[in-house]
Amino acid sequence: MAKEIIITLPDGSKMEVEKGITLQEIAKKIGSNLAKDALAGKINGKPVDLNTPILEDSAVEIVTFSSPEGPDIYRHSTSHVMAQAVRELYPEAKFGIGPAIEDGFYYDFDLKTPFTPDDLAKIEKQMKKIIKRNLPFTSEELPKEKAIKFFKSINQDYKIELINGIDGNTVRIYRNGDFTDLCRGPHLPSTGKIKAFKLLSVAGAYWRGDEKRPMLQRIYGTVFNDSKKLEEYLYKQKEATRRDHRKLGKELDLFSIHDDFGAGLVLWHPKGALIRKIIEDFWRDEHLKRGYEMVMTPHIAKVGLWKTSGHWDFYRENMYSPMKIEEQEYVVKPMNCPAHILIYKSKTRSYRELPLRWAELGTVYRYERSGVLHGLLRVRGFTQDDAHIFCRPEQIEDEILKILDIILHMLRTFGFNEYEIYVSTRPDKYVGTLEHWEQATTALEKALNNAGLNYQIDPGEGVFYGPKIDIKIKDALGRAWQCSTVQVDFNIPERFDITYMGEDNREHRPIMIHRAILGSIERFMGCLIEHYVGAFPTWLAPVQVVVLPIADRHNDYANKVVCNLLKSGIRAEVDLRSESVNKKIRDSQVGKVPHMIIVGDNEIDTQTISVRARSGEDKRGLLLKKFLDDLFQEINKRL
């Protein structure tokens, strides 16, 4: 009689089963639906294939698509099927890596001929054949030498390099049909489990992200366990393409990036610069209302400053090379905080002065590899909406609450009302006392609770110098964008030895809070463009009103109207081109102008205007004063 073992299920219930039973067999014992949905399993927390035998008393879990690990296993298995299809269609291809990523998967291939859209369709067709074959995924552990010999025999150099970088004496391989790949797993039971997939695009990718290594071709794809989810995802992707800030930035003449000037360095055109000014003016006004003071600091500083702050040791790979000025080494700044520290140190501070709240729209420069640069979202020079609060330990909670208040006010004003919020706690390596860490972490959590905000704890993910709050905003498509951050810092005050005189006439160390609301102006502008599809609310629009004369004889009246608008503080233009009024209207709609004023013979005779809103609503016979009253109401409400 086979030996019995005890397995414990996620709900705490226990089952007595035969030793050597597989996870697939357990799923069948629990229920036919679970067996049908099962993708993989976990034994004592370790993800494994469904055909893995259980040899001792264990905690067991069946992984389905709705499990946290389920989608990644599904995606990764699909990447293997894609690689198998490429192998069958292009036998000369060499293979890099093929991981699961958020919403999909990719695989890197070394092939002399570039993949085309037609090639993607051929690969998809071949994948469907492989799925229909319902080939089992099987795994085997091999000695490294044997694995190297095998991959050498099929001319797969990249796999050999990967094997040489793996610790230990053995590696795991997976087979589906006659395709073999180096992989830790786990995988689906068979290719037939894969339901709805789509290959999306091809991009270049350096091997292991190194510009000095070969450029490979990366095929991206996505997969879901039903076709409806795939259709929803593809719709969102199409919508994301329509909203792409790089495309809209060019169409709306907001900004450009030129290789002649430098990758990752943004040139703001007049309309884009005007939107920036509106954002920055609002930002400054809101800070001044809340007791902040403005500071300004230069773009370069001596290298020694960054050595004192610790950036030179911990952040040097993101900094640019020093420049020599009169035998002194300077570097463009990657952060604003050391300069604010020096302002603090410029005189003796008293406990009565604290908290000090200093804000700066400070431009910083950080090295990013060219392969990760992405429009406004990932750049090399950007303006942080930075602020630093110097306070006493007992003031932390109140200051955090005030910071959350301004963050929420500003984000909601810009139209962002949904957030993902995380509190990152003490990592293994940290500076400062446990007492300060506990006090600061408690203050962050209390402030979030008092603000009525839901949040998640991210254990051990705080920075070494203090705990932090990260806030991700959700746009119109439900995509999350990293935006606001609040960080408590015990490190820099120590490094720069800053103090204040306490009530006891002794020196005490202040707490420093770093915070950004928008993150960077560049990234936030990218978010805004995509959120609104370039159709900014009237208060943000670079051109709020365009005046369109129907014919040349109406130009004088149109100029008179636009002059009155400009004198009233409205951002207005007049279109005097010798084009039809319908063409002018279409062009204004393409330019996303909120309001169009159309003037012709009737408007001149009655000294009125006709208005067409961006939404398509028409109003005729309006007095300009009435239009202005309504427009100012709209602007003041920031609509």
Q: How does this model look, in words?
A:
- With 639 residues, the chain is an alpha+beta fold.
- The chain contains 20 helices and 33 strands.
- The chain has an 8-stranded mixed β-sheet. A 5-stranded mixed β-sheet has the order 2-1-5-3-4, covered by helices on one side.
- α3 (70-89) packs across α4, α5 (144-153) packs antiparallel against α6 (157-164) and α13 crosses α14.
- The mean pLDDT is 94.
Task: List descriptors.
35% helix, globular, alpha+beta, eight-stranded mixed sheet, five-stranded mixed sheet, 639 residues
The overall pLDDT average reads 94
Oligomer category: single chain
Instruction: Provide the low-confidence segments as ranges.
Output: none
Task: Determine the N-to-C terminus distance.
Answer: 76 Å
Helical amount: 25-40%
Number of helices: 20
Class by SSE composition: alpha+beta
Largest β-sheet summary:
8 strands, mixed
What spatial form do the alpha-carbon principal axes imply?
A: globular
Strand order of the largest sheet: 16-20-21-28-25-24-22-23
Radius of gyration: 30 Å
Strand content: 25-35%
Strand segment count:
33
